[in-house]
Amino acid sequence: MTNLTTMSGFLLVNFPGNPEIEILQASLFSVFYLVALSGNMLIITATSIDCSLHSPMYFFLKHLSFLDLCFITTTVPRSICHSFMHSGTISLWECILQCFAFTVCCSTEMAMLTVMSHDRYVAICFPLRYEIIMDTTTCVHGVLAAWTSGLISGIMHTAATFSIHFCGPNVIHQFFCDIPQLMKLSCSNDYIPELGVSAFLSVVAFLCSISVGLSYTHIFSTVLRMPSAEGRAKAFSTCLPHLCVVILYISTGVFEFLRPPSDSPTVIDFLLTVLYTVVPPTFNPMIYSLRNKAMKTALRKVFKERKPYLFG
């Protein structure tokens, strides 16, 4: 049997024999990527230049937007190029780098959403102590902890994946180097260490989800006890966008990783992967902007400041 770790790389295959569908996929990916790029860049710009948004919530939101940009850039641009050029070859080292970057982004996003839920918990349940608890040092440490956990997860996952021996055809039925697809190419029981790492990271993700759930249980309990309807509305307007983002991210990831493996990938398998790799980074900026009056005001300021440069 051939060990493909000594060969040049892999072949990414989405829709074999369907160049029209491949071009359609590339066109849709281009639209999604441009929307994600513009939306997240606007949030980063607005939260950076508007003094009214210099608070812990928007500090974390700015880093989440940057993370979403990294997340979608890891897979989509290369897939677009492959589709338009009708060439899905990717070298071994490019595949390793893509797997590492993708895992880092996935794990960091989960950690960042957990940190953001804690921020909302402190803001709603301990409003008088909020500025003391969530000071600059705490916020910076929260972001660093999220990225550190992501880097550790990326190193563990990538090292375990590429320590296995790959046998047979070097074809990956996906638009990027997806670790579950790579494991299908493994020889014998070489993938057991990778399964151990996956199980460990799944437990960590589950604990993060439990932490988010507990935070929002306390948040809703506190909000519903507020005597003022205006106060409840304001609290919900700051918490619901984050909760929607969390549900979108976790639900799409669960759909992907809990579905039974398929030896012959279908369009449904491809769409499920798109749900958790492309949809969250694209729609997160919209979710955060729709119900947030402060964000809408800041975005209007950004457009007004840019207008003279565009038409002047």
From TrEMBL:
Transmembrane regions listed in the UniProt entry: 23-45, 57-76, 195-214, 235-258, 270-290
SUPFAM superfamilies with a match to the protein in the record:
Family A G protein-coupled receptor-like
**Which cell locations does it reside in?**
Cell membrane
Q: Does the keyword Cell membrane apply?
A: yes
Organism's domain of life? Eukaryota
Q: Does the keyword Transmembrane apply?
A: yes
Entry protein name: Olfactory receptor 14J1-like
**Source species:** Echinops telfairi (Lesser hedgehog tenrec)
